[in-house]
Every structure is written in C-alpha cells, then in structure tokens.
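Contributing new records

If you add data, match the layout below exactly. Sequence lines come first and carry their own label; structure lines follow with theirs. Keep one chain per record. Anything else will be rejected by the validation script.
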Amino acid sequence: MNEKSKELLEEAFSPKDECSICGSEYDEDEGGIQGHFGICPVTFCVWCYSSITDMVMQMNDCCEDGGE
C-alpha cells in the first residue's frame, strides 16, 4: 500500500469534527466525544452524547425491573 492510500484510509476512519447525529460542531471542552462503533468513526456533541447516555440508563432501568 502506498503512502497516499494509507493517508486516505486513515482519513476515512478518523472521526470528523461535527456531530454524527445533529451535525453541530464538535467541542471536546464542552463534553463532546469522538470514537468508533466497531470500525465506524463517530463524533457526538455534548447534547447528543448526553441524550444517548440518558437513553441507555433508561433502558437499563426498564430491564432491571423485569420490563414492567
């Protein structure tokens, strides 16, 4: 693999500086986060990230109560 191909591959799998959900600008200082879902790069702004974590916490409460 040549150098140009490596650069293109690295760029394709690097998280972008805008939220993957709402498209707002990424700001790590505000509480945003970047990472990967498997091999897919993702970026979440503080609002979308907090919404995702809240949803997971709500789902865990639901499952712990036996789904009632």
